[in-house]
Write a structure and sequence with these properties.
5-stranded mixed beta sheet, 5-stranded antiparallel beta sheet, 28 strands
């Protein structure tokens, strides 16, 4: 037992040691976790230090390359001068700038500016870490660019030395901007910097500095500004044109009220003062807008396009950079466009609300000669519809379908396609404008009459890849696509979306034999430092000369069809063009009670060898009552009327020439209806021949023998006598004629002859005895063998003996009255055919008078043009 007890104690000690040993291991684990945590902290600290060092190094590297900035850069706002192609000055920005001293700036304006732009202005050193952190957080949560971190000092640097474009706000630019702001804060006082800023900022309507803007908008010096006026000016600096009280009063009021709220939050005004100022109408105290001199407003949309083009291509801001800009404007053409859109002389538009856009391009150079981007605009730099994407309907067809078909598949203008019920690959039905189908027709007919089904079929033949390449070649590589904004879609074969500038530019390639130059307004600029920058784009061979010529030849027919010719015909001018309309969706039609035949957009693009002109017309609020275009009031034709007035004026000063047929194109007479195309045979009548264009080497060589074949005798001839009606009824089968051609039937009844296009004939009051009847067919200048039948007419009072039998008896002579009857009915039949032909022609020339939705997209797939 004792031994056992001892052993038990030893065992217990061992066990205890084991337990103690186990307990000692626990702290070691904790020590290990702490060590790992410390390592992580050290690692993070190292990364942070490395990032800071790297960031500091990168900042120092970028800062070292920052440009020099002088007092002149900050104080002066050099004028940007605009010239026409002859070097004549047409406009100068910032001419009437009025600098104000710090003592002239009222405290209410200082409070308004700092409250909305830089509340810690007096506490930072040029950059504001707190503001930057807030901007970073906003950009992370709301998306990059949702909030800026720039101080007023940084904004002054930007206005004085850098581009204001959003895409130019790079890390390098921000670093340089911050570095120069730090330096500026060391050289000037806060009061001086704020004064520089207030005198520098652009305030819309060609006004620079808030002192100048005070005179312009309120007709008073800045020292006399009231609270609501100071708030308006302070708010405008962020987006001057957007917050212009003349052109955008609602947005201007919203911005002004935001500034007033920030002043209240910043404890610069009381709540009562804020509420009182907010109640004041935005127009109260606003001076009459007298900045509407003829020259300024005439070139306004052109200047706006120039400014955007210079910003996009150079990163320089014409409103602050002090440039010399040499434009391509044709002042005479620009004045004509302005007058047509805005004066009452032409009496084209039904009201001031209807908007339009006109672009004039020189096809040989790509130069934009004139731009009309809006009507009845108030103030400068108004909204420019010419550079805004519009629904252009069928004007897209030569670009996405017919041009590529000729370019890549070498289709002729005769190429045959069947107009028949057809669906998109999704199963959705495609409708023509007239809800009808014409069967087999030529590609020329499909384009001229704007048939949707044949167009879609040709588009499918071409393939999206070829269409995309063709679009790239004519400057439309970034085409947004009508249906989903992601490039070419099936529905883009028959309707699309482009800016009027893009539309005129792309059609200019057809006018220029296939050579394309991107439309541009500026040929060169000279910077304030004397550097000359050439902005002339290079040209490229967008398509073969045969494609340009054959498309043009077909589009000549569009402007020559009766209905279109009535609106765009200019005597002596050779031109080509295409109409286009968009459609309302079925939901819009039902929701807004839009009448039948009404459309939201109407477009026309036409060209000569000298000019390409695109015109769009529509309303900004397209579903508002009465804001639609209709044939009933003629508004759907307005783009053509505008085009005619502009193009007729342009054509007066240039030589009007036709396009020369290139050697790559051959003109061939083919037999109508032949498929594939065949040359006419010796017996093909002239009425069955049509002349079309072929790419050299693809013209037909096979000769048709359709009209050389002898005609067979007609079948199914029967004759019966109806005693009750006392008339002979004659019927026969329809004659089957191979190929195209008109068929007429010639009846010989006794010694009388009658011609008809019907399948039956009636002889009233027939003479007694046996009547012998012979039927022949006339077609393609030939007469078929005859089919014969006879019928016996019983004497009056005898039983009816109607028969269908051959007769060798003498034929009874017909009375003169019967002869007259035959001739009368024949004449009526011929008249009926003539009326049907006339009706068909009328429907063709009145094409696209009505369409309806076949797509869920806003612009539907049935187009309403080529009336």
């Amino acid at each position: 037992m004792p031994e056992n007890n001892e052993m038990s104690r030893v065992s217990q000690k061992k066990n205890q040691k084991k337990k103690n040993g186990t307990r000692k291991k626990v702290p070691k684990k904790k020590k290990s976790n702490k060590s790992l945590f410390k390592k992580i902290l050290i690692g993070l600290a190292a990364l942070i230090i490395l990032a800071l060092v790297s960031g500091a190094g990168l900042f120092a590297y970028y800062a070292s390359s920052a440009p020099e900035i002088s007092v002149e850069d900050i104080v002066d706002s050099p004028n940007t001068v605009y010239y026409d192609p002859d070097g004549t000055e047409i406009y100068s920005s910032g001419e009437e700038r009025e600098l104000i001293e710090a003592s002239e700036i009222p405290q209410v304006l200082v409070d308004a500016v700092l409250s909305i732009e830089d509340q810690r202005f007096y506490n930072h050193i040029g950059v504001d870490p707190i503001r930057i952190a807030g901007a970073v957080l906003a950009n992370v949560t709301d998306g990059f660019g949702s909030e800026g971190g720039s101080t007023i000092t940084q904004q002054l640097i930007k206005l004085s030395k850098f581009s204001t474009k959003k895409e130019d706000q790079t890390i390098k630019r921000k670093a340089q901007e911050a570095w120069l702001a730090l330096k500026l804060e060391q050289e000037f006082s806060k009061e001086q910097i704020l004064t520089f800023y207030i005198n520098k900022v652009y305030m819309s309507d060609n006004q620079y500095g808030m002192g100048t803007a005070s005179k312009h908008y309120f007709d008073k010096p800045a020292s006399e500004l009231e609270l609501h006026e100071a708030a308006l000016l302070a708010g405008m600096s962020q987006a001057p044109n957007a917050y212009n009280p003349y052109t955008n009063p609602e947005r201007a009021k919203e911005r002004r009220d935001t500034v007033l709220y920030m002043m209240f939050e910043n404890e610069k005004i009381s709540e009562e003062e804020m509420k009182t100022a907010r109640e004041i109408p935005i127009t109260e105290g606003l001076a009459e807008n007298d900045d509407k001199s003829a020259d300024v407003m005439v070139i306004d949309n052109y200047l706006e396009t120039v400014i955007e083009e210079v910003r996009e291509k150079t990163g320089l801001d014409p409103q602050t950079a002090g440039l010399k800009i040499y434009t391509n404007i044709d002042m005479d053409a620009q004045k004509q466009v302005y007058e047509v859109l805005n004066s009452d002389e032409y009496n084209i538009f039904p009201n001031d609300e209807m908007q339009t856009a006109v672009t004039v391009v020189d096809p040989k150079t790509g130069q934009l000669k004139a731009i009309g981007g809006s009507r009845k605009a108030e103030g400068q730099l108004s909204f420019n519809h010419a550079s805004d994407p519009k629904q252009i309907g069928s004007t897209i067809k030569p670009l996405t379908t017919y041009g590529p078909a000729i370019e890549y598949l070498k289709y002729s203008t005769y190429h045959q396609v069947v107009d028949e019920p057809t669906n998109y690959s999704t199963g959705q039905k495609i409708n023509n404008w007239d809800r009808d189908y014409e069967g087999q027709i030529s590609m020329r007919r499909a384009l001229v009459d704007s048939r949707n089904v044949p167009t879609y079929k040709i588009f499918k033949d071409v393939g999206k890849q070829n269409t995309q390449q063709f679009m790239e070649n004519i400057g439309l590589g970034n085409y947004r696509g009508k249906a989903n904004g992601e490039g070419i879609n099936e529905s883009d074969s028959i309707s699309g979306e482009l800016t009027p500038i893009e539309l005129a530019g792309s059609y200019a390639a057809f006018a220029n034999g296939g050579e394309y130059t991107e439309p541009y307004t500026v040929s060169k600029i000279v910077t304030a430092d004397g550097e000359e920058i050439d902005l002339t784009p290079s040209s490229n061979k967008a398509m073969s000369d045969y494609t340009a010529y054959m498309i043009t030849d077909m589009l000549k027919d569009v402007v020559n069809v009766e209905f279109t010719s009535q609106t765009v015909n200019i005597p002596g001018l050779i031109q080509a063009g295409k109409t286009g309309t968009s459609n309302y969706t079925a939901d819009d039609i039902e929701k807004f009670n839009i009448p039948d035949g009404a459309v939201p957009d109407s477009t026309f693009v036409g060209y000569t060898t000298n000019y390409s002109v695109a015109v769009w017309t529509g309303y900004v609020n397209r579903t508002q009552e009465g804001h639609w275009l209709s044939f009933d009031d003629g508004t759907r034709e307005i783009p053509r009327l505008v085009y005619r007035e502009v193009m007729a004026y342009l054509a007066e000063s240039v030589e009007n020439r036709d396009w020369s047929k290139p050697n790559s194109v051959v003109e061939v007479a083919v037999e109508k209806g032949s498929n594939p195309a065949a040359l006419p045979g010796p017996s093909t009548p002239s009425s069955e021949k049509v002349t079309e264009l072929f790419v050299r080497g693809t013209e037909p060589t096979k000769v048709s023998n359709t009209f050389d074949k002898d005609l067979t005798a007609p079948t199914g001839l029967t004759a019966s006598y109806d005693a009750e009606a006392d008339e002979v009824i004659i019927n026969w089968d329809a004659y089957s004629l191979e190929g195209d051609g008109d068929v007429t039937y010639e009846l010989k009844i006794g010694d009388q002859t009658a011609t008809t296009g019907d399948l039956g004939y009636v002889v009233q009051d027939p003479p007694e005895g046996t009547m012998n009847i012979t039927l022949t067919v006339k077609a393609r200048g030939k007469t078929s063998p005859g089919a014969s039948a006879s019928v016996t007419v019983p004497p009056s009072g005898e039983d009816e003996e109607s028969s269908e039998e051959e007769s060798d008896g003498d034929e009874s002579e017909s009375s003169s009255e019967e002869s007259s009857s035959f001739e009368s009915e024949s004449s009526q039949s011929s008249s009926s055919q003539s009326q049907e032909s006339s009706s068909s022609s009328s429907e063709s020339s009145a094409s696209e008078a009505q369409s309806s939705s076949s797509s869920a997209s806003e612009t539907e797939d049935e187009d309403d043009e080529d009336e």
